[in-house]
Automatic annotation (TrEMBL), chains A, B:
It is an enzyme of class 2 (transferase). NCBIfam families: pyridox_kin (TIGR00687). Gene3D superfamilies: 3.40.1190.20. Keywords: ATP-binding, Kinase, Nucleotide-binding, Transferase. Belongs to the pyridoxine kinase family. GO terms for cellular component: cytosol. This is pyridoxal kinase. The keyword Transit peptide does not apply. Its EC number is 2.7.1.35. GO terms for molecular function: ATP binding; pyridoxal kinase activity.
Length: 305, 305
Protein backbone atom coordinates (compact mmCIF):
# COMPACT_ATOMS: atom_id res chain seq x y z
CA UNK A 1 0.00 0.00 0.00
CA UNK A 2 1.55 3.36 0.93
CA UNK A 3 5.28 3.65 1.38
CA UNK A 4 6.19 3.83 5.04
CA UNK A 5 8.86 6.33 5.87
CA UNK A 6 9.31 7.27 9.50
CA UNK A 7 11.78 9.78 10.86
CA UNK A 8 12.47 10.76 14.45
CA UNK A 9 13.25 14.48 14.50
CA UNK A 10 14.79 15.92 17.66
CA UNK A 11 15.15 19.69 17.75
CA UNK A 12 13.32 22.81 18.90
CA UNK A 13 9.61 23.64 18.68
CA UNK A 14 8.30 27.17 18.38
CA UNK A 15 4.58 27.88 18.81
CA UNK A 16 4.65 30.68 16.24
CA UNK A 17 6.76 30.59 13.12
CA UNK A 18 9.02 28.14 11.38
CA UNK A 19 12.35 27.03 12.78
CA UNK A 20 13.50 23.63 14.08
CA UNK A 21 10.82 20.97 13.96
CA UNK A 22 8.20 23.49 12.78
CA UNK A 23 10.38 24.13 9.74
CA UNK A 24 11.21 20.46 9.09
CA UNK A 25 7.87 18.74 9.64
CA UNK A 26 5.46 19.99 6.98
CA UNK A 27 7.88 19.64 4.03
CA UNK A 28 8.77 16.10 5.14
CA UNK A 29 5.09 15.21 5.56
CA UNK A 30 4.29 16.53 2.10
CA UNK A 31 7.09 14.30 0.83
CA UNK A 32 5.51 11.26 2.46
CA UNK A 33 7.24 11.00 5.83
CA UNK A 34 5.60 10.33 9.17
CA UNK A 35 7.56 12.76 11.30
CA UNK A 36 7.87 11.90 14.98
CA UNK A 37 8.78 15.23 16.57
CA UNK A 38 10.60 15.05 19.86
CA UNK A 39 10.66 18.71 20.81
CA UNK A 40 13.77 19.47 22.85
CA UNK A 41 12.45 22.93 23.68
CA UNK A 42 9.10 24.69 23.42
CA UNK A 43 9.48 28.42 22.80
CA UNK A 44 6.78 30.96 21.95
CA UNK A 45 8.77 32.09 18.88
CA UNK A 46 12.32 31.99 17.55
CA UNK A 47 15.01 33.92 19.37
CA UNK A 48 15.44 36.43 16.54
CA UNK A 49 12.44 38.35 17.88
CA UNK A 50 14.53 39.43 20.86
CA UNK A 51 11.94 38.27 23.41
CA UNK A 52 11.02 34.63 23.92
CA UNK A 53 9.11 32.65 26.54
CA UNK A 54 9.37 28.90 26.88
CA UNK A 55 10.93 25.76 28.29
CA UNK A 56 13.80 23.41 27.59
CA UNK A 57 13.87 19.67 28.17
CA UNK A 58 16.70 18.25 30.24
CA UNK A 59 18.82 15.43 28.87
CA UNK A 60 17.01 12.91 31.05
CA UNK A 61 13.60 14.13 29.86
CA UNK A 62 14.70 13.58 26.26
CA UNK A 63 15.93 10.09 27.13
CA UNK A 64 12.71 9.24 28.98
CA UNK A 65 10.54 10.20 26.04
CA UNK A 66 12.75 8.16 23.73
CA UNK A 67 12.43 5.19 26.11
CA UNK A 68 8.66 5.53 25.70
CA UNK A 69 9.07 5.22 21.93
CA UNK A 70 11.48 2.32 22.24
CA UNK A 71 9.05 0.40 24.45
CA UNK A 72 6.55 0.40 21.58
CA UNK A 73 9.18 -0.71 19.04
CA UNK A 74 8.40 2.00 16.52
CA UNK A 75 10.68 1.69 13.50
CA UNK A 76 12.61 4.55 11.96
CA UNK A 77 14.46 4.85 8.66
CA UNK A 78 16.03 8.11 9.72
CA UNK A 79 17.04 10.31 12.64
CA UNK A 80 17.20 14.08 12.14
CA UNK A 81 18.82 16.13 14.89
CA UNK A 82 19.20 19.89 15.01
CA UNK A 83 19.34 22.56 17.70
CA UNK A 84 19.63 21.13 21.20
CA UNK A 85 19.55 23.35 24.25
CA UNK A 86 22.44 22.07 26.38
CA UNK A 87 25.45 19.78 26.48
CA UNK A 88 23.47 17.19 28.41
CA UNK A 89 20.72 17.32 25.76
CA UNK A 90 23.36 16.64 23.10
CA UNK A 91 24.66 13.75 25.25
CA UNK A 92 21.11 12.37 25.47
CA UNK A 93 20.71 12.53 21.71
CA UNK A 94 24.02 10.70 21.35
CA UNK A 95 22.54 7.88 23.44
CA UNK A 96 19.35 7.91 21.34
CA UNK A 97 21.31 7.80 18.08
CA UNK A 98 23.56 5.01 19.38
CA UNK A 99 20.55 2.95 20.40
CA UNK A 100 18.75 3.51 17.11
CA UNK A 101 21.78 2.62 14.99
CA UNK A 102 22.28 -0.55 17.03
CA UNK A 103 18.84 -1.81 15.99
CA UNK A 104 19.02 -0.51 12.39
CA UNK A 105 22.52 0.00 11.04
CA UNK A 106 21.12 1.30 7.73
CA UNK A 107 19.32 4.16 9.43
CA UNK A 108 20.37 7.56 8.08
CA UNK A 109 21.37 9.97 10.85
CA UNK A 110 21.48 13.51 9.56
CA UNK A 111 23.04 15.67 12.24
CA UNK A 112 22.90 19.42 11.91
CA UNK A 113 25.43 20.63 14.49
CA UNK A 114 23.56 23.84 15.30
CA UNK A 115 25.92 25.97 17.34
CA UNK A 116 26.02 29.42 15.81
CA UNK A 117 26.27 31.57 12.71
CA UNK A 118 28.13 34.54 11.32
CA UNK A 119 30.96 34.34 13.82
CA UNK A 120 28.78 33.99 16.92
CA UNK A 121 28.04 30.92 19.08
CA UNK A 122 24.45 30.69 20.31
CA UNK A 123 25.01 27.63 22.43
CA UNK A 124 27.29 27.29 25.44
CA UNK A 125 30.91 26.29 24.76
CA UNK A 126 30.48 22.97 26.60
CA UNK A 127 28.31 21.72 23.72
CA UNK A 128 31.28 21.70 21.33
CA UNK A 129 33.24 18.74 22.78
CA UNK A 130 30.05 16.66 22.91
CA UNK A 131 29.38 17.25 19.20
CA UNK A 132 33.02 16.34 18.49
CA UNK A 133 32.60 13.10 20.43
CA UNK A 134 29.43 12.19 18.50
CA UNK A 135 31.04 12.94 15.15
CA UNK A 136 34.00 10.73 16.05
CA UNK A 137 31.69 7.81 16.88
CA UNK A 138 31.16 6.95 13.22
CA UNK A 139 27.38 6.72 13.77
CA UNK A 140 26.45 9.92 11.94
CA UNK A 141 25.74 9.52 8.22
CA UNK A 142 25.63 13.11 7.06
CA UNK A 143 26.24 16.52 8.61
CA UNK A 144 25.09 19.96 7.49
CA UNK A 145 27.16 22.58 9.31
CA UNK A 146 27.25 26.17 8.16
CA UNK A 147 30.65 27.71 7.51
CA UNK A 148 30.98 29.04 11.06
CA UNK A 149 30.19 25.62 12.54
CA UNK A 150 32.84 24.05 10.31
CA UNK A 151 35.35 26.54 11.68
CA UNK A 152 34.30 25.67 15.24
CA UNK A 153 34.57 21.93 14.60
CA UNK A 154 37.84 21.97 12.68
CA UNK A 155 39.67 25.07 13.85
CA UNK A 156 40.27 25.87 10.18
CA UNK A 157 39.22 29.29 8.86
CA UNK A 158 37.25 28.88 5.61
CA UNK A 159 38.95 31.84 3.95
CA UNK A 160 40.23 30.03 0.86
CA UNK A 161 39.30 27.10 -1.34
CA UNK A 162 42.37 25.31 -0.07
CA UNK A 163 41.19 25.64 3.52
CA UNK A 164 37.65 24.50 2.69
CA UNK A 165 39.10 21.34 1.18
CA UNK A 166 41.37 20.92 4.19
CA UNK A 167 38.36 21.26 6.53
CA UNK A 168 36.29 18.74 4.53
CA UNK A 169 39.18 16.33 4.63
CA UNK A 170 39.59 16.88 8.38
CA UNK A 171 35.88 16.10 8.95
CA UNK A 172 36.00 12.98 6.78
CA UNK A 173 39.16 11.58 8.41
CA UNK A 174 39.25 12.86 11.99
CA UNK A 175 35.51 12.79 12.52
CA UNK A 176 34.67 9.71 10.58
CA UNK A 177 31.86 11.43 8.65
CA UNK A 178 31.13 9.99 5.23
CA UNK A 179 28.95 12.79 3.86
CA UNK A 180 29.15 16.54 4.48
CA UNK A 181 27.21 19.47 3.08
CA UNK A 182 28.34 22.93 4.19
CA UNK A 183 25.62 25.55 3.75
CA UNK A 184 25.82 29.31 3.41
CA UNK A 185 29.50 29.67 2.62
CA UNK A 186 30.20 33.29 1.63
CA UNK A 187 31.88 33.78 -1.73
CA UNK A 188 35.41 35.12 -1.33
CA UNK A 189 34.87 38.26 -3.41
CA UNK A 190 31.20 38.48 -4.41
CA UNK A 191 28.76 39.07 -1.53
CA UNK A 192 25.70 38.60 -3.76
CA UNK A 193 26.53 34.89 -3.95
CA UNK A 194 26.26 32.05 -1.45
CA UNK A 195 27.92 28.68 -1.87
CA UNK A 196 26.84 25.24 -0.77
CA UNK A 197 29.74 22.82 -0.74
CA UNK A 198 29.29 19.08 -0.44
CA UNK A 199 31.60 16.13 -0.16
CA UNK A 200 31.51 12.36 0.08
CA UNK A 201 34.61 10.62 1.39
CA UNK A 202 37.11 9.65 -1.33
CA UNK A 203 35.21 11.62 -3.97
CA UNK A 204 35.67 15.11 -5.41
CA UNK A 205 33.72 17.84 -3.58
CA UNK A 206 31.01 19.79 -5.41
CA UNK A 207 29.73 23.33 -5.19
CA UNK A 208 26.37 25.00 -5.85
CA UNK A 209 26.32 28.77 -6.43
CA UNK A 210 23.26 30.84 -5.67
CA UNK A 211 22.18 34.45 -5.57
CA UNK A 212 21.71 35.72 -2.04
CA UNK A 213 18.42 37.40 -1.14
CA UNK A 214 19.08 40.60 0.80
CA UNK A 215 17.00 39.90 3.87
CA UNK A 216 17.21 37.89 7.08
CA UNK A 217 15.50 34.51 7.30
CA UNK A 218 15.42 32.00 10.14
CA UNK A 219 14.73 28.29 9.91
CA UNK A 220 16.33 28.04 6.48
CA UNK A 221 19.04 25.66 7.66
CA UNK A 222 16.45 23.46 9.37
CA UNK A 223 14.34 23.38 6.20
CA UNK A 224 17.40 22.51 4.13
CA UNK A 225 18.47 19.71 6.46
CA UNK A 226 14.98 18.16 6.38
CA UNK A 227 14.75 18.34 2.59
CA UNK A 228 18.27 16.98 2.18
CA UNK A 229 17.35 14.03 4.40
CA UNK A 230 14.38 13.25 2.16
CA UNK A 231 16.48 13.80 -0.91
CA UNK A 232 19.35 11.47 0.06
CA UNK A 233 16.78 8.84 1.05
CA UNK A 234 15.23 9.23 -2.38
CA UNK A 235 18.32 9.48 -4.61
CA UNK A 236 20.73 7.49 -2.45
CA UNK A 237 23.72 8.66 -0.49
CA UNK A 238 25.92 7.87 -3.48
CA UNK A 239 24.20 10.76 -5.29
CA UNK A 240 24.82 13.48 -2.74
CA UNK A 241 25.37 16.24 -5.32
CA UNK A 242 22.08 15.52 -7.10
CA UNK A 243 20.23 15.17 -3.80
CA UNK A 244 21.65 18.51 -2.66
CA UNK A 245 20.54 20.33 -5.83
CA UNK A 246 16.97 19.11 -5.24
CA UNK A 247 16.94 20.32 -1.64
CA UNK A 248 18.55 23.68 -2.48
CA UNK A 249 16.06 24.23 -5.28
CA UNK A 250 13.11 23.93 -2.91
CA UNK A 251 14.70 26.09 -0.22
CA UNK A 252 15.44 28.74 -2.80
CA UNK A 253 11.86 28.83 -4.12
CA UNK A 254 10.54 28.98 -0.54
CA UNK A 255 12.78 31.95 0.29
CA UNK A 256 11.73 33.78 -2.87
CA UNK A 257 8.04 33.36 -2.03
CA UNK A 258 8.66 34.39 1.57
CA UNK A 259 10.56 37.49 0.41
CA UNK A 260 7.80 38.48 -2.03
CA UNK A 261 5.26 38.17 0.77
CA UNK A 262 7.32 40.48 3.01
CA UNK A 263 7.61 43.03 0.20
CA UNK A 264 3.85 42.83 -0.45
CA UNK A 265 3.39 43.94 3.18
CA UNK A 266 5.58 46.96 2.50
CA UNK A 267 8.33 45.58 4.71
CA UNK A 268 11.56 45.88 2.71
CA UNK A 269 13.54 43.04 4.30
CA UNK A 270 13.78 42.34 8.00
CA UNK A 271 16.24 42.83 10.81
CA UNK A 272 16.92 40.89 14.00
CA UNK A 273 14.80 41.76 17.06
CA UNK A 274 12.48 43.88 14.99
CA UNK A 275 8.68 43.80 14.60
CA UNK A 276 9.29 43.22 10.89
CA UNK A 277 10.46 39.65 11.61
CA UNK A 278 6.95 38.25 11.63
CA UNK A 279 6.53 39.20 7.98
CA UNK A 280 9.59 37.14 7.10
CA UNK A 281 8.69 33.86 8.78
CA UNK A 282 9.12 31.15 6.16
CA UNK A 283 5.85 30.86 4.21
CA UNK A 284 5.78 27.07 4.48
CA UNK A 285 2.01 26.60 4.36
CA UNK A 286 1.94 28.74 1.23
CA UNK A 287 4.73 26.62 -0.34
CA UNK A 288 3.05 23.22 -0.13
CA UNK A 289 2.89 23.10 -3.94
CA UNK A 290 6.66 23.62 -4.03
CA UNK A 291 7.35 20.84 -1.53
CA UNK A 292 5.41 18.36 -3.61
CA UNK A 293 7.56 19.02 -6.71
CA UNK A 294 9.96 16.16 -6.45
CA UNK A 295 12.04 15.92 -9.57
CA UNK A 296 12.12 19.34 -11.10
CA UNK A 297 15.09 21.63 -10.47
CA UNK A 298 17.20 24.13 -12.37
CA UNK A 299 19.91 24.23 -9.70
CA UNK A 300 23.27 23.05 -11.01
CA UNK A 301 26.33 21.75 -9.23
CA UNK A 302 29.91 21.69 -10.42
CA UNK A 303 33.13 20.19 -9.24
CA UNK A 304 34.77 22.17 -6.45
CA UNK A 305 38.36 22.15 -7.51
CA UNK B 1 -1.22 37.62 -1.99
CA UNK B 2 -1.97 34.46 -0.01
CA UNK B 3 -4.87 34.40 2.40
CA UNK B 4 -3.64 34.68 5.95
CA UNK B 5 -5.35 32.38 8.38
CA UNK B 6 -3.73 31.87 11.75
CA UNK B 7 -4.99 29.63 14.52
CA UNK B 8 -3.60 29.10 18.00
CA UNK B 9 -4.11 25.43 18.92
CA UNK B 10 -3.64 24.44 22.55
CA UNK B 11 -3.78 20.71 23.27
CA UNK B 12 -1.50 17.69 23.60
CA UNK B 13 1.52 16.72 21.52
CA UNK B 14 2.60 13.13 20.96
CA UNK B 15 5.98 12.35 19.40
CA UNK B 16 4.63 9.27 17.62
CA UNK B 17 1.18 9.07 16.16
CA UNK B 18 -1.75 11.36 15.63
CA UNK B 19 -3.83 12.74 18.47
CA UNK B 20 -4.20 16.30 19.78
CA UNK B 21 -2.12 18.85 17.92
CA UNK B 22 -0.47 16.11 15.82
CA UNK B 23 -3.93 15.20 14.55
CA UNK B 24 -5.09 18.79 14.01
CA UNK B 25 -2.06 20.45 12.46
CA UNK B 26 -1.42 18.81 9.09
CA UNK B 27 -5.06 18.89 7.90
CA UNK B 28 -5.33 22.56 8.88
CA UNK B 29 -2.05 23.39 7.14
CA UNK B 30 -3.19 21.64 3.98
CA UNK B 31 -6.31 23.80 4.16
CA UNK B 32 -4.21 26.96 4.32
CA UNK B 33 -3.85 27.66 8.04
CA UNK B 34 -0.69 28.66 9.84
CA UNK B 35 -1.11 26.57 12.97
CA UNK B 36 0.59 27.87 16.09
CA UNK B 37 0.80 24.78 18.31
CA UNK B 38 1.04 25.41 22.02
CA UNK B 39 1.63 21.90 23.27
CA UNK B 40 0.13 21.49 26.74
CA UNK B 41 1.81 18.10 27.13
CA UNK B 42 4.54 16.22 25.31
CA UNK B 43 4.04 12.46 25.43
CA UNK B 44 5.93 9.75 23.58
CA UNK B 45 2.64 8.32 22.23
CA UNK B 46 -1.05 8.39 23.02
CA UNK B 47 -2.28 6.79 26.22
CA UNK B 48 -4.08 3.98 24.39
CA UNK B 49 -0.76 2.12 24.11
CA UNK B 50 -0.86 1.48 27.84
CA UNK B 51 2.64 2.82 28.44
CA UNK B 52 3.57 6.47 27.94
CA UNK B 53 6.51 8.70 28.84
CA UNK B 54 6.33 12.46 28.85
CA UNK B 55 5.68 15.79 30.48
CA UNK B 56 2.81 18.16 31.18
CA UNK B 57 2.94 21.94 31.25
CA UNK B 58 1.63 23.69 34.32
CA UNK B 59 -0.99 26.40 34.00
CA UNK B 60 1.62 29.10 34.54
CA UNK B 61 3.87 27.62 31.86
CA UNK B 62 0.98 27.77 29.38
CA UNK B 63 0.31 31.39 30.35
CA UNK B 64 3.98 32.35 30.06
CA UNK B 65 4.26 30.97 26.55
CA UNK B 66 1.08 32.80 25.59
CA UNK B 67 2.55 36.01 27.04
CA UNK B 68 5.51 35.50 24.70
CA UNK B 69 3.10 35.37 21.74
CA UNK B 70 1.16 38.37 22.97
CA UNK B 71 4.33 40.44 23.26
CA UNK B 72 4.87 40.02 19.51
CA UNK B 73 1.25 40.92 18.69
CA UNK B 74 0.64 37.89 16.50
CA UNK B 75 -2.91 37.94 15.18
CA UNK B 76 -5.28 34.97 15.27
CA UNK B 77 -8.60 34.36 13.56
CA UNK B 78 -9.24 31.29 15.68
CA UNK B 79 -8.45 29.49 18.92
CA UNK B 80 -8.70 25.70 19.03
CA UNK B 81 -8.52 24.04 22.44
CA UNK B 82 -8.65 20.35 23.21
CA UNK B 83 -7.21 18.00 25.84
CA UNK B 84 -5.63 19.86 28.75
CA UNK B 85 -3.82 18.01 31.50
CA UNK B 86 -5.17 19.65 34.68
CA UNK B 87 -7.72 22.04 36.13
CA UNK B 88 -5.09 24.76 36.34
CA UNK B 89 -4.20 24.21 32.67
CA UNK B 90 -7.89 24.67 31.81
CA UNK B 91 -7.92 27.85 33.95
CA UNK B 92 -4.86 29.11 32.07
CA UNK B 93 -6.56 28.48 28.73
CA UNK B 94 -9.59 30.39 30.00
CA UNK B 95 -7.32 33.39 30.59
CA UNK B 96 -5.76 32.98 27.14
CA UNK B 97 -9.18 32.80 25.47
CA UNK B 98 -10.47 35.78 27.44
CA UNK B 99 -7.46 37.86 26.42
CA UNK B 100 -7.69 36.83 22.76
CA UNK B 101 -11.42 37.57 22.52
CA UNK B 102 -10.85 40.99 24.11
CA UNK B 103 -8.55 41.97 21.23
CA UNK B 104 -10.61 40.27 18.51
CA UNK B 105 -14.26 39.73 19.32
CA UNK B 106 -14.83 38.00 15.96
CA UNK B 107 -12.30 35.29 16.74
CA UNK B 108 -13.80 31.80 16.60
CA UNK B 109 -13.06 29.78 19.73
CA UNK B 110 -13.73 26.12 19.14
CA UNK B 111 -13.51 24.34 22.47
CA UNK B 112 -13.45 20.57 22.55
CA UNK B 113 -14.14 19.75 26.22
CA UNK B 114 -12.02 16.61 26.26
CA UNK B 115 -12.82 14.81 29.49
CA UNK B 116 -13.59 11.21 28.67
CA UNK B 117 -15.42 8.74 26.49
CA UNK B 118 -17.63 5.69 26.69
CA UNK B 119 -18.65 6.27 30.30
CA UNK B 120 -15.16 6.90 31.64
CA UNK B 121 -13.48 10.18 32.67
CA UNK B 122 -9.83 10.43 31.71
CA UNK B 123 -9.27 13.75 33.43
CA UNK B 124 -9.56 14.54 37.13
CA UNK B 125 -12.99 15.57 38.38
CA UNK B 126 -11.77 19.08 39.31
CA UNK B 127 -11.54 19.88 35.59
CA UNK B 128 -15.33 19.73 35.20
CA UNK B 129 -16.30 22.90 37.12
CA UNK B 130 -13.62 24.88 35.24
CA UNK B 131 -15.04 23.82 31.88
CA UNK B 132 -18.51 24.77 33.14
CA UNK B 133 -17.24 28.21 34.14
CA UNK B 134 -15.63 28.76 30.71
CA UNK B 135 -18.77 27.68 28.88
CA UNK B 136 -20.86 30.09 30.97
CA UNK B 137 -18.57 33.00 30.05
CA UNK B 138 -20.13 33.39 26.62
CA UNK B 139 -16.66 33.55 25.02
CA UNK B 140 -16.75 30.13 23.37
CA UNK B 141 -18.18 30.06 19.84
CA UNK B 142 -18.58 26.36 19.25
CA UNK B 143 -18.14 23.17 21.27
CA UNK B 144 -17.64 19.59 20.11
CA UNK B 145 -18.32 17.28 23.07
CA UNK B 146 -18.90 13.59 22.59
CA UNK B 147 -22.05 12.09 24.06
CA UNK B 148 -20.36 11.20 27.36
CA UNK B 149 -19.03 14.75 27.77
CA UNK B 150 -22.51 16.14 27.14
CA UNK B 151 -23.80 13.93 29.94
CA UNK B 152 -21.03 15.16 32.24
CA UNK B 153 -21.73 18.81 31.39
CA UNK B 154 -25.50 18.68 31.56
CA UNK B 155 -26.32 15.80 33.91
CA UNK B 156 -28.77 14.60 31.26
CA UNK B 157 -28.48 11.00 29.99
CA UNK B 158 -28.58 10.95 26.17
CA UNK B 159 -30.82 7.89 26.07
CA UNK B 160 -33.63 9.37 23.97
CA UNK B 161 -34.12 11.97 21.29
CA UNK B 162 -36.09 14.03 23.79
CA UNK B 163 -33.15 14.06 26.18
CA UNK B 164 -30.65 14.97 23.44
CA UNK B 165 -32.80 17.98 22.59
CA UNK B 166 -33.10 18.83 26.28
CA UNK B 167 -29.29 18.67 26.64
CA UNK B 168 -28.71 20.84 23.56
CA UNK B 169 -31.18 23.37 24.92
CA UNK B 170 -29.45 23.28 28.32
CA UNK B 171 -26.08 23.98 26.72
CA UNK B 172 -27.44 26.83 24.58
CA UNK B 173 -29.26 28.51 27.47
CA UNK B 174 -27.38 27.67 30.67
CA UNK B 175 -23.95 27.67 29.09
CA UNK B 176 -24.41 30.47 26.65
CA UNK B 177 -23.03 28.43 23.73
CA UNK B 178 -24.30 29.44 20.31
CA UNK B 179 -23.11 26.41 18.33
CA UNK B 180 -22.82 22.77 19.40
CA UNK B 181 -21.84 19.62 17.54
CA UNK B 182 -22.06 16.36 19.47
CA UNK B 183 -19.92 13.63 17.96
CA UNK B 184 -20.14 9.84 18.21
CA UNK B 185 -23.64 9.52 19.59
CA UNK B 186 -24.64 5.83 19.58
CA UNK B 187 -27.86 5.01 17.73
CA UNK B 188 -30.57 3.85 20.14
CA UNK B 189 -31.14 0.49 18.48
CA UNK B 190 -28.57 0.04 15.68
CA UNK B 191 -24.95 -0.31 16.83
CA UNK B 192 -23.61 -0.22 13.27
CA UNK B 193 -24.53 3.47 13.10
CA UNK B 194 -23.03 6.57 14.72
CA UNK B 195 -24.77 9.92 14.88
CA UNK B 196 -23.39 13.43 14.81
CA UNK B 197 -25.91 15.94 16.11
CA UNK B 198 -25.50 19.69 15.68
CA UNK B 199 -27.40 22.71 16.80
CA UNK B 200 -27.31 26.49 16.51
CA UNK B 201 -29.28 28.46 19.07
CA UNK B 202 -32.88 29.22 18.04
CA UNK B 203 -32.64 26.87 15.06
CA UNK B 204 -33.67 23.27 14.52
CA UNK B 205 -30.95 20.69 15.30
CA UNK B 206 -29.59 18.45 12.55
CA UNK B 207 -28.28 14.90 12.46
CA UNK B 208 -25.76 13.05 10.29
CA UNK B 209 -25.90 9.24 10.21
CA UNK B 210 -22.84 7.18 9.43
CA UNK B 211 -21.74 3.58 9.37
CA UNK B 212 -19.42 2.71 12.21
CA UNK B 213 -16.09 1.04 11.38
CA UNK B 214 -15.50 -1.88 13.72
CA UNK B 215 -12.11 -0.90 15.08
CA UNK B 216 -10.63 1.46 17.65
CA UNK B 217 -9.19 4.80 16.50
CA UNK B 218 -7.67 7.61 18.53
CA UNK B 219 -7.34 11.25 17.52
CA UNK B 220 -10.55 11.13 15.50
CA UNK B 221 -12.27 13.73 17.67
CA UNK B 222 -9.25 16.02 17.43
CA UNK B 223 -9.19 15.66 13.65
CA UNK B 224 -12.92 16.37 13.47
CA UNK B 225 -12.65 19.48 15.67
CA UNK B 226 -9.81 20.88 13.52
CA UNK B 227 -11.66 20.24 10.26
CA UNK B 228 -14.88 21.68 11.66
CA UNK B 229 -13.02 24.83 12.66
CA UNK B 230 -11.77 25.24 9.09
CA UNK B 231 -15.17 24.40 7.75
CA UNK B 232 -17.13 26.94 9.82
CA UNK B 233 -14.53 29.57 8.96
CA UNK B 234 -15.06 28.73 5.29
CA UNK B 235 -18.85 28.32 5.15
CA UNK B 236 -19.78 30.64 8.00
CA UNK B 237 -21.22 29.81 11.40
CA UNK B 238 -24.70 30.31 10.00
CA UNK B 239 -24.14 27.18 7.90
CA UNK B 240 -23.19 24.79 10.70
CA UNK B 241 -24.93 21.77 9.16
CA UNK B 242 -23.15 22.15 5.82
CA UNK B 243 -19.83 22.83 7.53
CA UNK B 244 -20.29 19.70 9.63
CA UNK B 245 -21.01 17.48 6.62
CA UNK B 246 -17.73 18.64 5.03
CA UNK B 247 -15.72 17.87 8.16
CA UNK B 248 -17.41 14.48 8.71
CA UNK B 249 -16.81 13.52 5.11
CA UNK B 250 -13.06 14.01 5.45
CA UNK B 251 -12.87 12.23 8.81
CA UNK B 252 -14.78 9.32 7.36
CA UNK B 253 -12.49 8.97 4.34
CA UNK B 254 -9.45 9.18 6.62
CA UNK B 255 -10.77 6.42 8.87
CA UNK B 256 -11.52 4.18 5.89
CA UNK B 257 -7.99 4.57 4.55
CA UNK B 258 -6.54 3.98 8.01
CA UNK B 259 -8.63 0.86 8.43
CA UNK B 260 -7.60 -0.51 5.03
CA UNK B 261 -3.96 0.01 5.96
CA UNK B 262 -4.41 -1.92 9.20
CA UNK B 263 -6.08 -4.76 7.31
CA UNK B 264 -3.26 -4.77 4.74
CA UNK B 265 -0.88 -5.47 7.63
CA UNK B 266 -3.00 -8.48 8.60
CA UNK B 267 -4.15 -6.75 11.76
CA UNK B 268 -7.93 -7.17 11.87
CA UNK B 269 -8.84 -4.09 13.92
CA UNK B 270 -7.09 -2.96 17.07
CA UNK B 271 -7.61 -3.02 20.80
CA UNK B 272 -6.53 -0.71 23.60
CA UNK B 273 -3.07 -1.27 25.10
CA UNK B 274 -2.16 -3.71 22.37
CA UNK B 275 0.81 -3.79 19.99
CA UNK B 276 -1.72 -3.63 17.16
CA UNK B 277 -2.44 0.03 17.98
CA UNK B 278 0.47 1.31 15.92
CA UNK B 279 -1.11 -0.09 12.77
CA UNK B 280 -4.23 1.95 13.44
CA UNK B 281 -2.67 5.36 13.98
CA UNK B 282 -4.56 7.77 11.71
CA UNK B 283 -2.85 7.70 8.29
CA UNK B 284 -2.80 11.49 8.01
CA UNK B 285 0.30 11.80 5.81
CA UNK B 286 -1.26 9.32 3.42
CA UNK B 287 -4.52 11.34 3.38
CA UNK B 288 -3.11 14.68 2.24
CA UNK B 289 -5.04 14.34 -1.02
CA UNK B 290 -8.24 13.96 1.00
CA UNK B 291 -7.57 17.05 3.14
CA UNK B 292 -7.15 19.20 0.05
CA UNK B 293 -10.61 18.25 -1.28
CA UNK B 294 -12.58 21.20 -0.11
CA UNK B 295 -16.03 21.12 -1.60
CA UNK B 296 -16.80 17.55 -2.44
CA UNK B 297 -18.89 15.46 -0.05
CA UNK B 298 -21.61 12.85 -0.20
CA UNK B 299 -22.44 13.14 3.50
CA UNK B 300 -26.02 14.28 4.07
CA UNK B 301 -27.66 15.89 7.06
CA UNK B 302 -31.31 15.92 7.99
CA UNK B 303 -33.46 17.65 10.52
CA UNK B 304 -33.25 16.08 13.98
CA UNK B 305 -36.83 16.13 15.06
Amino acid sequence: MQTEKQVLAIQSHVVHGYVGNKSATLPLQIRGWDVDCLNAVQFSNHTGYGHVEGYKLSGSQIKNIYEGLRAQEFEYQALLTGYLPSAEAVEAVFEVGTQMKSTNKDMIWLLDPVMGDEGRLYVKEDVIPVYKKILKSGLVTLITPNHFEVEVLTGIQLNSKENVIKALDFMHREYNIEHIVISSVPHATDNTILLTIGSTINEKPFVIRQSKIQSYFTGTGDLFAALLLDSVHRYGLSNLAIATTRAISIVSKTLKRTYEFGLSKNVPGCKMADKSMKFYELRLVQCIDIFSQIEHTDVKYEEYA
